[in-house]
Specification:
Layout: H1 3-13, H2 15-27, H3 36-49, E1 52-57, E2 61-67, E3 75-81, H4 108-124, E4 132-138, H5 147-153, E5 164-175, E6 179-181, E7 184-187, E8 191-198, E9 202-203, H6 213-231, E10 239-247, E11 253-254, E12 257-265, H7 269-289, E13 293-300, E14 305-307, H8 309-323, E15 328-330, H9 340-344, E16 349-357, H10 377-392
Parallel strand pairs: 3-4, 3-5, 5-16, 6-15
Antiparallel strand pairs: 1-2, 2-4, 6-16, 7-14, 8-12, 8-13, 9-11, 10-12
Helix pairs in contact: 1-10, 2-4, 3-4, 4-10, 6-7, 8-10
């Protein structure tokens, strides 16, 4: 039997177990930096599989190792994130979240399950490859500074030194059975913007006696968009969005303070620094011009994610062999962000998309929504494909 067929057979054999694992994780989600029980469950599974592993890395991170023939030859890492989101689930299913206000709405339960499935397959086939496989179960992807940055500082890419890293992410807009790849810059950097405008409150009928922070904030929001429309290179994607404004006045009350929050995303580090300066300059100058003041905090987030072109092309072709060319697509650049980008800044990386949608079954909700779910057939595909790609890069 060919190696590809062995992997497919094992993934199919393990399918029911993968469903059970995913449903357990989905039922018991935990927020970033609080993945205590999730980490215990993963460690328990690795122990059951007989996999060497370490726990409590960079918080609740877990790293496992499988050594093939000639283990010093090369080390490849496979990564899954394990945290959930602060969302109240609205699905009606047997595995609905039991943790109120917490939900695996970004598919990290799927990522973790697929990696566990890949580990089980690769351990059975370790005589078929040379080198070492390192498995990273990473906490806190959803919250700055990002668990990846913490694990890297803890040395997760060292001892043994990782030469390549792969990761996958659910994509509900892609039907289950399909995957998608993007070479080069694939996802944006992301920064969080916090602006506090200070004015002088007063009666709404006497604006001349007040300094209106709502008016100041309105001018700031409009002016910030000029950074994108008049300063940015129109050939490079940029997003600057203010998503939250709180001015706690009333119909006849001008408040003292307005708070705003937003995000900035781009693909160029030098331009990113320039925009930070422009945001501060615009906010301070507009506020001062109206007689007010403001505080600006820009929390620098994840860098842009760059997929190594050679690795990604190789994985693309391997996926065509494993799934059929008709099931492998080119992925457009996305303005969303992921802390896998930290790994991609250190070692050659490939981060690809796993189709999880099924229109016929009504599984169409986007990630980060209360009704997000997946066609669980993706677990068999995700585990098998990850094992296939990894083992081919260690031949």
């Amino acid at each position: 039997m060919e190696l590809k067929d062995k992997i497919k057979l094992q993934a199919a054999t393990d399918f029911n177990d993968l469903v059970a694992i995913r449903r357990h994780l989905h039922t018991h989600p935990e927020l970033s930096f609080h993945e205590v029980e999730t980490a215990k469950y993963i460690a328990q599974k690795l122990t059951e599989f007989g996999i060497e592993h370490q726990t409590n890395i960079g918080g609740h991170g877990i790293v496992g190792i499988i050594k093939g023939n000639n283990p010093e030859k090369k080390t490849i890492a496979l990564r899954a994130d394990i945290d959930a989101l602060p969302i109240e689930e609205k699905n009606d299913c047997s595995y609905v979240s039991q943790n109120v206000g917490v939900m695996h709405a970004c598919g990290h339960d799927v990522h973790t399950t697929c990696l566990l499935g890949a580990i089980k397959i690769l351990d059975k086939l370790k005589n078929n490859f040379e080198g070492t496989l390192k498995f990273i179960f990473q906490p806190a992807e959803e919250k700055l500074p990002g668990g990846a940055s913490i694990l890297i500082k803890e040395g997760v890419l060292k001892n043994p030194d990782v030469s390549q890293i792969f990761g996958q992410h659910v994509l509900p807009q892609l039907e289950t059975g399909k995957v998608a790849f993007k070479s080069g810059i694939a996802m944006a950097s992301c920064d969080e913007i916090f602006i506090t405008v200070h004015g002088n409150g007063g009666h709404g009928a006497q604006p001349n006696l007040a300094i209106d922070p709502i008016l100041i904030a309105s001018h700031i929001v409009i002016a910030l968009q000029s950074i994108i429309s008049r300063n940015a290179n129109p050939l490079m994607p940029n997003v600057l969005s203010i998503g939250k404004i709180i001015g706690n006045g009333a119909t006849n009350i001008i408040p003292e303070v307005v708070k705003m929050e937003g995000t900035f995303r781009t693909f160029d580090e030098q331009w990113r620094k320039e925009v930070h300066q422009k945001i501060e300059s615009i906010c301070h100058s507009i506020a001062a011009g109206f007689g007010g003041s403001c505080d600006v905090l820009i929390d620098k987030g994840y860098p842009f994610l760059k997929n190594d072109e050679v690795m990604t092309q190789s994985a693309f072709e391997l996926a065509q062999i494993y799934l059929g060319a008709e099931n492998v697509e080119e992925m457009p650049t996305r303005m969303t962000a992921e802390d896998f980008s930290y790994y991609s800044q250190v070692v050659p990386a490939c981060f690809y998309r796993l189709g999880t949608g099924n229109k016929d079954k009504g599984i169409t909700s986007s990630i980060h929504t209360p009704t997000f779910d997946v066609d669980e057939k993706c677990l068999e595909i995700g585990a098998g494909l990850m094992a296939w790609i990894a083992i081919q890069h260690l031949k």
